[in-house]
Structure formats: C-alpha cells, structure tokens
Write a structure and sequence with these properties.
Number of helices: 4
Strand order of the largest sheet: 1-2-3-4-5
Largest sheet: 5 strands, mixed
Number of domains: 1
CATH superfamily: Gcn5-related N-acetyltransferase (GNAT)
Distance between the termini: 43 Å
CATH architecture: 3-Layer(aba) Sandwich
CATH class: Alpha Beta
Structural class: alpha+beta
Order of helices and strands: EHHEEEHEH
C-alpha cells in the first residue's frame, strides 16, 4: 500500500534516505548529516508544499519512498510546479515503484502543481528511466551535474 509518510516512520525513512544518498553520488560532494536529513523529511511530511509517500507492505514494512516539493516556478510565480526530490525503492519493493511515482504525481497535482519534474540519476538505469519518463509524457529538460568545492 502507498500512503503518506508519518513521523513515526522516521527511522526507516532515514535508512532509505541514506541508501538513496549513497547511490545518487551525493557523497562525492557533501557529507551525510542525519539531523539535516531528518529535518528535511519532517518538513516534507508537515509542510503544505511537501509530499512524502512510502510503500508500506504487510502493514509496517516500508520498502520505498518518494518525496517532492511544490513551489511557484521561478520564471513565472503564477505557475506552480512540483519537483521530485527522491524516488527510491529497496529490493523488497520491486514492482511497487511505478505506482509510487504515479501517486507522487497525483499528490503534487492535488496540491496545486501544474507541471512536474522528475530526476534521472546517472548510473541508476538512467537510459531505461529516460525512456520510461518519455513514454509517460515527459520531455527531456535540464541535466544536472555535481561538483564539490574543496
């Protein structure tokens, strides 16, 4: 079942967040900071402009999560857009990812988003994911690259 995340889910959210952080190459440019991650996740749960969903199988086994923010687009503040921050499933969540993504879009739209952006993490089946996005109505936009300043 896909449901909204709760504060009581926080230990598992942090564990999966760390897994995503490591796979998404962020460790090359920034150190994981658990207190910051917890504050950010809490904000997504409590903010009217945040979405944080989980895949909960067997009534308490959380195997995936997705988060997004909704905001006034910087080149047209009258246009509210949603931006996926992370979309993650653990191996036990295989088969639930697409439903999680669709629910993330649905929740963003319900919170006023008129458009939505999805990220494509390099090295995480990025070619397959790009084709999936395009088959679902997305067009390629910006690509992002990471660089740390030492």
């Amino acid at each position: 079942m896909i449901r909204e995340a709760r504060l009581t889910d926080m230990p598992r959210l942090l564990e999966m967040g760390r897994n995503f952080f490591d796979k998404a190459n962020w460790a090359r440019v920034v150190e994981w900071h658990e207190d910051s991650a917890e504050a950010a996740l809490e904000n997504l749960i409590e903010s009217p402009d945040g979405v944080l969903l989980v895949i909960d199988i067997d009534g308490g086994t959380i195997v995936g999560m997705a988060g997004a923010i909704i905001y006034g687009f910087y080149f047209n503040l009258d246009h509210r857009t949603g931006q996926e921050l992370f979309w993650w499933t653990e191996p036990q969540g295989k088969g639930y990812g697409l439903s999680l993504w669709r629910e993330l879009e649905k929740q963003a739209r319900a919170q006023g988003a008129q458009s939505f952006q999805m990220s494509n993490v390099n090295g995480m089946k990025s070619d397959v994911l790009g084709r999936l996005y395009e088959r679902n109505g997305y067009t390629p936009g910006e690509s992002t690259y990471l660089k740390g300043f030492a």
